[in-house]
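Students often ask what a holo structure prediction actually looks like on paper. The answer is less mysterious than it sounds. You provide the chain, you provide the ligand, and the output is a string of discrete structure tokens encoding the 3D arrangement of the protein together with acetyl coenzyme *A.
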Amino acid sequence: MPHAIIAGTGRYLPDNILTNHDLEKMVQTSNQWIVERTGIQERRIAGKDVSASDLAVPAAKKALAAAGVAPEEVDLILVGTSTPDMFFPSTACFVQAKLGCVNAAAFDMLAACSGWVYGMSVANAFIRGGQHKTVLVIGAEVYSHILNWEDRATCVLFGDGAGAVVLKASDTADGILAANIFSDGSKSELLFAPGGGSRSRFTPELVAEKRYTLAMVGNSTFKIAVKMMADAATKAMKENNVTPADIKLVIPHQANLRIINAVAKQLGMPEEHFFSNLQKYGNTAAASIPIALDEALEQGLVAKGDLVLMVTFGGGFTWGSLLVRL
Ligand code: ACO
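The corresponding structure tokens follow.
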């Protein structure tokens, strides 16, 4: 069976920076509260007319260039996003057209912050099964468009951005070694954007009450996230007879530094083995891990041959893990 190897990565972040001090002027919050409770110092905010595919395309172009892959060689595009350009067509179809990937099928993965890991898992299955050979897996989010900017409990947490990976079929034994995804829909109301879908259509009242925006019960989500991320990471390691000492770097979903440190503690791993860039970008949802992976490679924290563990958690609830030998 072919293995799915990471052939190239890329990221794109909007230029506009919104700092915690800027937020102090918008809602009743403080730089100190945000840094102490989350680790976040600033985040990037896309322009009002910028959509998820606008961020996805430059990230994907960089990943294709790094992989030395032409757009026509791509045979599948998966976009993890919970802020799609529109209900349909999928954001992946817009990306397909903008990139000129004329030979690619395209669809979105709607799993909130876990969307990119879900996409990697699906791409891995397609490559292992021989159905696809060259897959673009993108995480692209514009959460600034679905936040309630009057709700201090949520608007300080998120940012916009995109990350992309090119996966290729290979005869080597490297690449994705474990890809586990999970869900529990019974807790959907702890983290959701309830309005605007077929259950609660857009009406003037819904818009006035901002029910299309993200709502979260933060502290309950926090506790479940720590447990599920630690469980998913353990499963990926056990499946491959790998111990924490074998892992060069853990790249966790970038929601909260306290969550990352708690997961490290549960796994009995040093915090320094966990990558974080949420200080600069906040939580970019499905884009957070591919952005982080691209930065970790660029900074030389990981290189070819290293074992990398990626672990995610998001609305749904959804969660999962990837164990990859680069
Ligand atoms: N500034 C100042 N005070 C605030 C702010 C703010 N921005 N936000 C909340 N507070 C207040 C609250 O009102 C509360 O005040 P009270 O004690 O007077 O009631 C107090 O701070 C504590 O609030 P908590 O919500 O209990 O704070 P907590 O320590 O849990 O931190 C946070 C909140 C950062 C949201 C944390 O719970 C968290 O990170 N949760 C998990 C997020 C996550 O992982 N989400 C999953 C991925 S996202 C996705 O899938 C879309």
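The pocket of acetyl coenzyme *A is lined by residues 29, 33-34, 37-38, 112-113, 152-153, 156, 191, 218-219, 221-222, 225, 255-256, 259, 283, 285, 313-315 (CB under 6 Å).
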